């Protein structure tokens, strides 16, 4: 277009975009330049080479892409980065008894970010910011829960918070219970003036509080030990970490729960109440009795490897072995069904759960030593730490 015919495009002020974001439920909004994250790329490549990724793909898959916003939007000049809180209080405890005085069924715990869909509202709010930019003639693309961008680095550069030693981003006075996302745009937005200085100091509570020692150095997580990641990995759940898994069915919040900034926030301001749809625990017996379609329909928001319900059953059986009452007839029946399951992965974890609960009697009559699946035979031969 000849210069005389070009129409000047208004560049929205960051405060204007932040106001739009807050009106749509965002808690913090900042702006940073869309320049490559060179240091972040090196970290991803070095940690992947050292095996610390544990097979995780996500932003590790193509660091040259996830650490360069211009790969998501050519000629990008800015990132509008946002945080949305998912801090909620625990739902009211389940009744101590089920119908007819029976004890409550064993339950698996769910990490807070997965109680409900928090990324949906985040993306909606970022979409409102993107529409405002597009209305002025700029290009804009929403990136949230996406392997196209290392969102924590974007948020750090935009001045939203600092990196905790558990590798989470902490917002000053607000803690780390946030989901993060960004809008990448070719609009020449003014960047936020300052980055947030480190607020952890000498504290090492997250390192000390990790149940498997997965935080191997400040800001460095070995995914091969991280329970949250191991619950999402294909294959058998690592035998050496099954007891440490405890009652965690999906995700792990330990490093955030022991974090002093998070605790200070809770003391200063009680967490908002859980919503009616928040699912902090899952009935393990109900999960193990459900069909594949039912499980994926109920838990489709979670990352389930290859969208295969067998991994939900695998996780549930490990938790069952850690928390269930071995004398409960319902638990006995669930284990018997799992030991007859047509999937060897399920049968193998049922063997472990039964032995962990001291119910080796349930294995009699299944001819497990000659099971066609080597996973089952390996479980029968392996030592088990009894409850």
Mind explaining what this structure looks like?
The protein is an alpha+beta fold and 387 residues long. The chain has helices spanning 14-23, 38-49, 58-61, 63-66, 119-135, 151-157, 205-209, 227-230, 242-245, 254-257, 260-268, 284-289, 292-298, 310-323, 329-339, 344-356, 374-381; strands at 28-33, 78-85, 107-110, 140-144, 162-163, 169-170, 178-185, 215-217, 220-221, 248-250, 281-283. The protein has two domains: 3-185, no CATH class; 237-249 and 290-381, no CATH class. The chain is 36% helix and 12% strand. Strands 1-2-7-4 form a four-stranded antiparallel sheet, with helices on both faces. A hairpin with a 2-residue loop joins strand 8 and strand 9 (220-221). Helix 1 (14-23) crosses helix 5 (119-135), helix 15 (329-339) runs antiparallel to helix 16 and helix 16 (344-356) runs parallel beside helix 17 (374-381).
Topology:
Layout: H1 14-23, E1 28-33, H2 38-49, H3 58-61, H4 63-66, E2 78-85, E3 107-110, H5 119-135, E4 140-144, H6 151-157, E5 162-163, E6 169-170, E7 178-185, H7 205-209, E8 215-217, E9 220-221, H8 227-230, H9 242-245, E10 248-250, H10 254-257, H11 260-268, E11 281-283, H12 284-289, H13 292-298, H14 310-323, H15 329-339, H16 344-356, H17 374-381
Parallel strand pairs: 3-10
Antiparallel strand pairs: 1-2, 2-7, 3-11, 4-7, 5-6, 8-9
Helix pairs in contact: 1-5, 14-16, 15-16, 16-17
